[in-house]
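Supplementary Methods, section 5.1.

A reviewer requested that the exact input to the structure prediction be made available. We therefore reproduce it here, unchanged from the version used in the analyses.
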Amino acid sequence: MSSTFHSPFPIPRIYWRTEDLVVVGLFAALAKVVSLAIALVGGGMNPFTLFLKNGVSTALLVVLVARVGRFGVLALQLFVTHMVSLLMFGGGMISFLPALAIALFCDGLIALFGGYRRLAAVLAGVALYDFLLRGISIGMSMLSARENAGMVMMAAVMIVPGYFGCLLVGLPFGAKFVKELRHAGIVREV
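The structure derived from this sequence is encoded token-by-token as follows.
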């Protein structure tokens, strides 16, 4: 006889499936590799490569969020990305806690405005996530170079083309990829 307890009430799944964790890790690694390849092929950090690499990263992020479809996916992706940056470059941990708060906030907004299966909610959440992360970047630049306004302007010049890449390339192509992957059965619908 089995001694397992069966509850009459549905118990929510509070753990992450191994498949979802692998997908988050793969997409984080893929975004890093593709961004580095675009920067190397494009000749360094010029406005065109910033535009393109941020667009590709945002498209991958949209596909990741729609594919995993769980609260906390942005936060987990941010954690993995920051750990990789820490191990590869030895920095980036100063902005981790504010970025984690932004990721959880945007995850909450996606869940509140229709969930992870609604493409419009995913696109709005990722767009806000990218915008607020760039705000943190400019804020950190202002803190570190308060006596030199030219340095802050240089950071803004580097951030603005990247965000336009997110808006003009990343979100539309991410939406297109999600629609095609839903037809293929890779991104599941409710």
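The two ends are 36 Å apart (CA to CA). These observations are discussed further in the main text.
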